[in-house]
């Protein structure tokens, strides 16, 4: 009897392998294919007893799937996705579903959607957040595409997504490129969160706090309104010591950051729509400046820079920083949501901003207690024009303005 698996995944990189194990673990049979066949064979061999089929060719892969076929691509964004789609087109049948789970540019997704739709196929552009661990244990998923494809994919997406308060961290984001667009802004917001944490760290450091003292402060912050994955791992990172020298690891890491593109895409889109995303802008610029290490070193021999004037009492400074960080986070999310609302109106996507905040509460890198507050604000007023105007956030901002 020929195999008829529930789901197919192409691209056994870090994300692909972990997603497959998650999907299989939820009771679905999965066929896999990878450009480099040795990776497929090693992967399947490393997981005996699971309902996995490693296909050596695309034809074998396609023939092993039940109809309508559900084929997910987990590839490096860009040309690889187009190349695979071209190879799939002659092999698939009307009604089959292709899902691009990578970090694709939403305009690429819209172009691919048009091409696949013209062939009678259905295309889902799905943002998947949470990195390797999220992919394995439960990511936050942001799928965009036709409702009929969402209906068929929903049981699988809901089974593998993270859960918060019993709710899966996935909703149908909207048509066409809406899912990849929201994932891009999510990543931009993540850049902003990381930059705000970096600035809080820089101030604590300038005020003379040791890395252990800073770890204590971030741990304390993680108990309150700032409770989030990024604050938690900042505390953990500050605690880490280099086994050879005993020095804090954070002091030994080269202060240069790279970027893969989603932060810049958010900025470009914000500029095109005349929406201010100043925190994300600062985050992208800080990464660019950090990468200019040689120029910064050379300049530091000639230019002195300011002497920090952090004259508050240390405990008071930490408290004020907490309030400033929280307020800045509210401003940053307001900007990201404002950008999504603007694009939603322009594109007719009808984005549910409260629903989007709710699926970011689990699985993804920006998961945070704060997102529950945003969800509540939009549930109380779905037409909320600006997050800062929600009564809860107005109160926080008014209290923390001075800090
Ligand atoms: P990896 O770099 O680990 O894997 C990339 C996969 O793409 C491999 O299977 C590789 O096959 C395949 N591939 C490439 Br590269 N070029 C190809 C081509 N021309 N034709 C066919 N296959 C090709 O990536 P990853 O970290 O798993 O990320 C996958 C996607 O998920 C990306 O879009 C990424 O931005 C997104 N994402 C990643 C994370 C994360 O934390 N890593 C989080 C969220 C989203 P090979 O084995 O033959 O080289």
Describe the protein's topology.
Elements: E1 7-10, H1 14-25, E2 30-33, H2 37-45, E3 52-54, H3 58-63, E4 70-73, H4 79-88, E5 97-100, H5 106-118, E6 122-129, H6 131-137, E7 140-144, H7 147-160, E8 163-164, E9 167-168, H8 178-206, H9 211-221, H10 229-239, H11 249-252, H12 262-272, H13 278-291, H14 293-300, H15 314-347, H16 353-359, H17 369-380, H18 391-400
Parallel strand pairs: 1-2, 1-4, 2-3, 4-5, 5-6
Antiparallel strand pairs: 6-7, 8-9
This protein binds nicotinamide 8-bromo-adenine dinucleotide phosphate (NBP).
Protein described:
The structure is a single chain. The protein is of the alpha/beta class and 403 residues long. It is 55% helix and 9% strand. It is built from 18 helices and nine strands. The chain has helices at residues 14-25, 37-45, 58-63, 79-88, 106-118, 131-137, 147-160, 178-206, 211-221, 229-239, 249-252, 262-272, 278-291, 293-300, 314-347, 353-359, 369-380, 391-400; strands at 7-10, 30-33, 52-54, 70-73, 97-100, 122-129, 140-144, 163-164, 167-168. The chain has a seven-stranded mixed beta sheet with strand order 3-2-1-4-5-6-7, sandwiched between helices. Helix 4 (79-88) links the parallel strand 4 and strand 5. The N and C termini lie far apart (69 Å). The protein binds nicotinamide 8-bromo-adenine dinucleotide phosphate. Nicotinamide 8-bromo-adenine dinucleotide phosphate is lined by residues 11-16, 34-36, 39, 74-77, 80, 83-84, 102-103, 128-129, 131-132. The site of nicotinamide 8-bromo-adenine dinucleotide phosphate (NBP) has 23 residues, from helix 1, helix 4, strand 6 and helix 6.
